[in-house]
Amino acid sequence: MHFHAGGAVAAAVRNAARQPTKTRLLATMLALTTVPAFFPAPSAHAADAPSVVVKMSDKPPKFIPDKVTIKAGQTVEWINNAKTLHSVDGDPSMALKPSDVSLPKGATPFDSGFMKPEMTWQYTFKIRGTYKYTCVPHEKDGMNGEVIVK
């Protein structure tokens, strides 16, 4: 396998060969620890992948599944695969019925805004507890969901 990691690393390895054993060992170690800087780090995309996917339906309007359990720090992705507008609202001030939306103490309210068909929205849950949320346009139809964060 051949690669070119840059002139500085190659020069350090060449110069190390001309030095006494201790210096050569140190220069080689330095060169080897420098090489990773020339290669991209593994993609964090896999770590950013949602832990759970929740879909939205029209008839009847509902979140599928309507209840999920995840660990703190994980992400949920909602997909509007329906034909109408939907939303994901964990903001008690937007709910028609206060009991439809609730958050654990210290959690920040969240709101996807109106999601057109085929849109997705993600939210990372950092605080443990139970999050009850609704779809504002369909709350009256019972389109409510729950995320339990352990």
What attributes does this structure have?
150 residues, 3 helices, single chain, alpha/beta, four-stranded mixed β-sheet, disordered N terminus, 2 domains, Immunoglobulin-like, three-stranded mixed β-sheet
Written description of the protein model:
- The chain has two domains: about 5-40, no CATH class; about 45-150, Immunoglobulin-like (Sandwich), CATH 2.60.40.420.
- The chain has helices at about 5-15, 20-35, 45-50; strands at about 50-55, 60-65, 65-70, 75-80, 90, 110, 120-125, 130-135, 145-150.
- The protein is α/β, with parallel strands linked by helices and about 150 residues long.
- The model is unreliable at about 1-15 and about 20-45 (pLDDT under 50).
**How far is the N terminus from the C terminus?**
46 Å
Which sequence of SSEs, written as H and E, runs from N to C?
HHHEEEEEEEEE
Helical/strand content category: alpha/beta
CATH fold label of the largest domain? Immunoglobulin-like
Q: What is the chains' assembly state?
A: single chain
Q: What's the CATH class label of the largest domain?
A: Mainly Beta
Shape: globular
The domain tally reads 2
Mind summarizing the main beta sheet? 4 strands, mixed
Overall pLDDT confidence: 79
Uncertain regions: pLDDT < 50 for 5+ in a row?
1-17, 21-46
**Strand percentage:** 25-35%
Number of strands: 9
Query: Under the CATH scheme, which architecture of the largest domain would be assigned?
Result: Sandwich
Rg from C-alpha positions? Answer: 26 Å
Relevant CATH superfamily of the largest domain: Cupredoxins -  blue copper proteins
Arrangement of strands in the largest sheet:
2-1-4-7
The proportion of residues forming helix, as a percent range, comes to 10-25%
What is the count of helical runs?
3
